[in-house]
Amino acid sequence: ISSVALMAGSAAAFGPFGAKAPAVSTPVVKSFADDLVGALPPVGFWDPLGFAEKANDSTLKRYREAELTHGRVAMLAVLGFLVGEKVEGSSFLFDAQVSGPAITHIGQVPEGFWALLLLSIGAAEQFRAEKGWVDPSEVPIDQPGLLRDEYIPGDIGFDPLGLKPEDPEEFREMQTKELQNGRLAMLAAAGFLAQEAADGKGIIEHFQSMA
Hints:
This protein is mainly α and 211 residues long. It is 44% helix and 0% strand. It has 4 helices and no strands.
Protein backbone atom coordinates (compact mmCIF):
# COMPACT_ATOMS: atom_id res chain seq x y z
CA ILE A 1 0.00 0.00 0.00
CA SER A 2 1.52 3.33 -1.00
CA SER A 3 1.98 6.28 1.37
CA VAL A 4 -0.60 8.99 0.91
CA ALA A 5 0.01 12.72 1.38
CA LEU A 6 -1.66 15.92 0.29
CA MET A 7 0.07 18.92 -1.27
CA ALA A 8 -1.43 21.84 0.58
CA GLY A 9 -1.71 25.15 -1.22
CA SER A 10 -2.31 28.72 -0.17
CA ALA A 11 -4.64 31.43 -1.43
CA ALA A 12 -4.09 35.20 -1.38
CA ALA A 13 -6.86 37.67 -0.67
CA PHE A 14 -6.86 41.15 -2.14
CA GLY A 15 -8.66 44.21 -0.78
CA PRO A 16 -10.61 46.67 -2.93
CA PHE A 17 -8.63 48.82 -5.38
CA GLY A 18 -7.65 52.20 -3.92
CA ALA A 19 -7.37 52.94 -0.20
CA LYS A 20 -5.69 50.38 2.00
CA ALA A 21 -8.07 48.01 3.67
CA PRO A 22 -7.51 47.35 7.37
CA ALA A 23 -5.52 44.22 8.08
CA VAL A 24 -7.71 41.37 9.20
CA SER A 25 -6.16 38.36 10.88
CA THR A 26 -7.59 35.12 9.58
CA PRO A 27 -7.18 32.08 11.77
CA VAL A 28 -5.21 29.33 10.10
CA VAL A 29 -7.01 26.01 10.27
CA LYS A 30 -4.53 23.20 10.35
CA SER A 31 -5.56 20.20 8.29
CA PHE A 32 -4.66 16.59 8.87
CA ALA A 33 -2.51 16.68 5.73
CA ASP A 34 -0.23 19.33 7.27
CA ASP A 35 1.00 16.85 9.88
CA LEU A 36 0.96 13.71 7.73
CA VAL A 37 4.07 11.67 8.47
CA GLY A 38 5.68 9.05 6.26
CA ALA A 39 6.88 11.08 3.25
CA LEU A 40 10.62 10.54 3.44
CA PRO A 41 13.60 11.06 1.13
CA PRO A 42 14.63 9.92 -1.38
CA VAL A 43 11.05 9.10 -2.48
CA GLY A 44 9.31 11.94 -0.64
CA PHE A 45 5.72 12.51 -1.67
CA TRP A 46 4.77 9.40 -3.64
CA ASP A 47 1.22 9.01 -4.82
CA PRO A 48 1.39 7.71 -8.42
CA LEU A 49 -2.32 6.86 -8.55
CA GLY A 50 -3.41 10.27 -7.26
CA PHE A 51 -5.42 9.06 -4.26
CA ALA A 52 -4.44 12.08 -2.16
CA GLU A 53 -5.57 14.57 -4.79
CA LYS A 54 -9.12 13.30 -4.54
CA ALA A 55 -9.19 12.95 -0.74
CA ASN A 56 -10.33 15.33 1.97
CA ASP A 57 -8.99 15.25 5.53
CA SER A 58 -11.49 12.62 6.64
CA THR A 59 -10.60 10.32 3.77
CA LEU A 60 -6.87 10.81 4.33
CA LYS A 61 -7.28 9.82 7.98
CA ARG A 62 -9.03 6.62 6.90
CA TYR A 63 -6.23 5.92 4.42
CA ARG A 64 -3.63 6.33 7.15
CA GLU A 65 -5.65 4.19 9.57
CA ALA A 66 -5.87 1.45 6.93
CA GLU A 67 -2.15 1.66 6.15
CA LEU A 68 -1.16 1.39 9.80
CA THR A 69 -3.54 -1.48 10.47
CA HIS A 70 -2.38 -3.45 7.43
CA GLY A 71 1.24 -2.73 8.35
CA ARG A 72 0.74 -4.07 11.88
CA VAL A 73 -0.97 -7.21 10.60
CA ALA A 74 1.84 -7.69 8.09
CA MET A 75 4.51 -7.37 10.80
CA LEU A 76 2.76 -10.08 12.81
CA ALA A 77 2.40 -12.18 9.65
CA VAL A 78 6.12 -11.99 8.83
CA LEU A 79 6.96 -12.97 12.41
CA GLY A 80 4.44 -15.81 12.18
CA PHE A 81 5.98 -17.11 8.95
CA LEU A 82 9.47 -17.27 10.42
CA VAL A 83 8.65 -18.50 13.91
CA GLY A 84 5.99 -20.97 12.75
CA GLU A 85 8.38 -22.67 10.34
CA LYS A 86 11.36 -22.52 12.70
CA VAL A 87 9.59 -24.34 15.57
CA GLU A 88 7.97 -26.87 13.24
CA GLY A 89 7.84 -30.30 14.87
CA SER A 90 9.04 -29.03 18.25
CA SER A 91 6.25 -26.69 19.35
CA PHE A 92 3.92 -27.52 22.23
CA LEU A 93 1.02 -26.18 20.16
CA PHE A 94 -1.28 -28.63 18.37
CA ASP A 95 0.91 -31.60 19.50
CA ALA A 96 3.63 -30.42 17.11
CA GLN A 97 1.60 -31.84 14.22
CA VAL A 98 1.57 -28.67 12.09
CA SER A 99 4.27 -28.82 9.42
CA GLY A 100 5.24 -27.66 5.94
CA PRO A 101 5.28 -24.14 4.47
CA ALA A 102 3.58 -21.49 6.60
CA ILE A 103 0.84 -20.90 4.03
CA THR A 104 -0.41 -24.46 4.73
CA HIS A 105 -0.41 -24.15 8.54
CA ILE A 106 -3.80 -22.48 8.88
CA GLY A 107 -5.49 -25.42 7.20
CA GLN A 108 -3.88 -27.90 9.60
CA VAL A 109 -5.09 -26.45 12.89
CA PRO A 110 -8.11 -27.90 14.75
CA GLU A 111 -11.55 -26.39 14.11
CA GLY A 112 -11.77 -24.94 17.62
CA PHE A 113 -8.86 -22.67 16.82
CA TRP A 114 -10.95 -20.90 14.17
CA ALA A 115 -13.58 -19.93 16.73
CA LEU A 116 -10.98 -18.47 19.09
CA LEU A 117 -9.31 -16.64 16.21
CA LEU A 118 -12.56 -15.09 14.97
CA LEU A 119 -13.57 -14.05 18.50
CA SER A 120 -10.19 -12.42 19.11
CA ILE A 121 -10.25 -10.54 15.81
CA GLY A 122 -13.84 -9.44 16.38
CA ALA A 123 -13.08 -8.13 19.87
CA ALA A 124 -10.02 -6.22 18.64
CA GLU A 125 -11.95 -4.67 15.76
CA GLN A 126 -14.86 -3.72 18.01
CA PHE A 127 -12.46 -1.97 20.40
CA ARG A 128 -10.76 -0.14 17.51
CA ALA A 129 -14.09 0.95 16.01
CA GLU A 130 -15.36 2.36 19.30
CA LYS A 131 -12.09 4.18 19.89
CA GLY A 132 -11.66 5.80 16.49
CA TRP A 133 -15.00 6.00 14.70
CA VAL A 134 -18.00 8.25 15.27
CA ASP A 135 -21.12 6.30 16.20
CA PRO A 136 -22.94 5.48 12.92
CA SER A 137 -26.16 6.93 14.31
CA GLU A 138 -24.45 10.34 14.58
CA VAL A 139 -22.72 10.33 11.17
CA PRO A 140 -24.11 12.41 8.28
CA ILE A 141 -25.43 10.21 5.50
CA ASP A 142 -22.83 11.57 3.04
CA GLN A 143 -19.87 10.83 5.37
CA PRO A 144 -19.83 7.08 6.06
CA GLY A 145 -16.96 5.73 8.13
CA LEU A 146 -16.25 9.09 9.79
CA LEU A 147 -13.34 9.09 12.24
CA ARG A 148 -13.43 11.16 15.43
CA ASP A 149 -11.82 14.60 15.12
CA GLU A 150 -9.50 14.00 18.08
CA TYR A 151 -8.51 10.50 17.01
CA ILE A 152 -4.95 9.99 15.79
CA PRO A 153 -4.93 7.15 13.25
CA GLY A 154 -3.47 4.03 14.81
CA ASP A 155 -3.46 5.40 18.36
CA ILE A 156 -5.98 3.11 20.04
CA GLY A 157 -4.55 3.64 23.52
CA PHE A 158 -2.87 0.22 23.72
CA ASP A 159 0.62 0.78 25.13
CA PRO A 160 1.22 -1.79 27.90
CA LEU A 161 5.00 -1.20 27.89
CA GLY A 162 4.69 2.60 28.00
CA LEU A 163 6.70 3.13 24.81
CA LYS A 164 4.73 6.12 23.51
CA PRO A 165 6.90 9.26 23.87
CA GLU A 166 5.53 12.36 25.54
CA ASP A 167 7.55 14.68 23.31
CA PRO A 168 5.68 15.45 20.02
CA GLU A 169 8.85 15.21 17.89
CA GLU A 170 9.81 11.86 19.39
CA PHE A 171 6.25 10.62 18.86
CA ARG A 172 6.38 11.71 15.23
CA GLU A 173 9.67 9.86 14.79
CA MET A 174 8.18 6.71 16.31
CA GLN A 175 5.14 7.00 14.00
CA THR A 176 7.50 7.22 11.01
CA LYS A 177 9.44 4.16 12.14
CA GLU A 178 6.25 2.15 12.57
CA LEU A 179 5.03 3.19 9.11
CA GLN A 180 8.32 2.27 7.48
CA ASN A 181 8.50 -1.11 9.22
CA GLY A 182 4.86 -1.77 8.36
CA ARG A 183 5.41 -0.94 4.69
CA LEU A 184 8.45 -3.22 4.54
CA ALA A 185 6.49 -5.98 6.28
CA MET A 186 3.64 -5.72 3.76
CA LEU A 187 6.12 -6.23 0.93
CA ALA A 188 7.85 -9.06 2.80
CA ALA A 189 4.59 -10.87 3.62
CA ALA A 190 3.46 -10.60 0.01
CA GLY A 191 6.85 -11.97 -1.11
CA PHE A 192 6.66 -14.87 1.36
CA LEU A 193 3.16 -15.78 0.18
CA ALA A 194 4.11 -15.63 -3.48
CA GLN A 195 7.34 -17.61 -3.03
CA GLU A 196 5.74 -20.41 -1.02
CA ALA A 197 2.79 -20.61 -3.40
CA ALA A 198 5.17 -20.80 -6.38
CA ASP A 199 7.36 -23.71 -5.28
CA GLY A 200 5.77 -25.19 -2.16
CA LYS A 201 8.88 -24.63 -0.05
CA GLY A 202 8.97 -22.79 3.26
CA ILE A 203 10.78 -19.49 3.69
CA ILE A 204 13.12 -20.96 6.33
CA GLU A 205 13.94 -23.76 3.89
CA HIS A 206 14.81 -21.15 1.26
CA PHE A 207 17.10 -19.33 3.68
CA GLN A 208 18.85 -22.58 4.64
CA SER A 209 19.41 -23.52 1.00
CA MET A 210 21.13 -20.17 0.42
CA ALA A 211 23.59 -20.68 3.28
